[in-house]
Here is the input.
Amino acid sequence: MTIGFVFSGQGAQYLGMGKNFYEESEYFKNRIDQASDILGVNIAEIMFEDEEKLNLTEYTQPIILAMSVAISEIVKSELKIKPAVVAGLSLGEYTALVESGALTFEEAITLVNKRGKLMQEAVPQGVGAMTAVMGLDRETIQSACLEASKVKGVYPANFNMPGQIVIGGYKEGVEKAEELLREAGTKRVIPLKVSGPFHTPLLETAAQQLEVVLKKVSFKEMKIPVVTNVTGAVISERDALVETLTKQVMSPVYFEDCINTMIESGVDTFIEIGPGKTLSSFIKKINKKMIIQNVEDIKTLNRLSERLAKD
Here is the structure.
């Protein structure tokens, strides 16, 4: 068995996530409280009682990271397993870097809080939009985006799995692309409730500002290979991290490619760590032969324990 960890991205959050871990695991509670101290806000209160703040990007990102890091360490400690390779969806890539040793928990919390603020402020509310497109191939979607950009810029943003690609850009361009994609035979287009057109060139200003912050970080050597959304390949070396994480904000997320790279490296068992099980559903569509289990609470932790005992 070769295990890969994949870490949740923004959008997976929900009110009450992590509550039973917080109440029953001293380790989990300490990590969440540590994040509260770093940011100067009550993270647990936001997680369990304040849905409006939970959905603000500047809070969402560090909260999901804190929860994911805590669960990862519980999984490794209690189940005596460790990943051979790691990846994450967008924000989740920062959790993967903590897992690899390239970033400390403290550095990552501060970084993603800043990243969230920059992404939130990059495009005025209502100017941009994102839509999930079902049932069409990459080439058809890329062609429609190119044609629709004659109205206003729209771009492929997330290559999640076969048959699901997210596009994003200016609202007018996205609406034109939706029209063209319906004509091309898409099964469905689903407008997403997001605060901006993430992973598109509209986030260039945010990327440039984030680069200034990243250049001040002392990244360490990665002890575990990290597969990046930017290329779908393993990040080659520590020195590439500033450029990779800068590009990541405004470049498409090649999550499907990341998973295929992990499978090619020998991974046969994926553990999704963090709120929700969106990534598990993606992986099932990418390769049905994989063993997949998410861990977001004590129930799913026990389920993973039982599953590993059988295998």
In short: The CA atoms of residues 172 and 310 lie 52 Å apart. The longest helix spans residues 57-79.
